[in-house]
């Protein structure tokens, strides 16, 4: 099992000429689940791959389980 640690940073600017690689298109949505401290996310990346992620716990550090799903299933869920 993996852990997600929530962090936020304020970026005031980027150096010119910085190569960040090719951009990704990410579409995601969250489902409300009836269990406190649980959340469910569906994410599609570049219209090619889809994942469902279950998050457990609260606060800045939470357990995370991610699974690949069929792209058609991800689109249907979103």
Task: Provide key terms for this protein.
5 strands, 78 residues, single chain, five-stranded antiparallel beta sheet, mainly beta
Structure description:
The chain is mainly β and 78 residues long. Helix content is 9%, strand content 45%. The protein contains one helix and five strands, in the order E-E-E-E-E-H. Strands 1-5-4-3-2 form a five-stranded antiparallel β-sheet. The longest helix is centred in the C-terminal third of the chain and has 7 residues. The chain is flat and about 45 Å long. The chain starts with a strand and ends with a helix.
Protein topology:
Elements: E1 2-5, E2 26-31, E3 38-45, E4 49-56, E5 61-69, H1 71-77
Antiparallel strand pairs: 1-5, 2-3, 3-4, 4-5
**Helix count, DSSP H or I runs of 4 or more residues:** 1
State the secondary-structure class: mainly beta
Spans where pLDDT lies below 50 across 5 or more residues: none
Measured by DSSP, the beta-strand proportion falls in: 35-45%
Assembly state of the chains shown: single chain
Measured on Cα atoms, how large is the radius of gyration?
A: 15 Å
Task: Report helical residue fraction.
Answer: under 10%
End-to-end Cα distance: 25 Å
- Note the overall shape: flat
């Amino acid at each position: 099992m993996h852990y997600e640690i929530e962090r936020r940073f304020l970026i005031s600017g980027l150096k010119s000429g910085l190569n960040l690689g090719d951009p990704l298109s990410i579409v995601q949505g969250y489902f409300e689940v009836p269990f406190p401290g649980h959340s469910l996310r569906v994410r599609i990346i570049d219209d090619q791959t889809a994942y469902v992620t279950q998050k457990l716990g609260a606060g800045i550090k939470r357990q995370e389980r991610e699974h690949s799903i069929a792209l058609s299933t991800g689109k249907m869920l979103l």
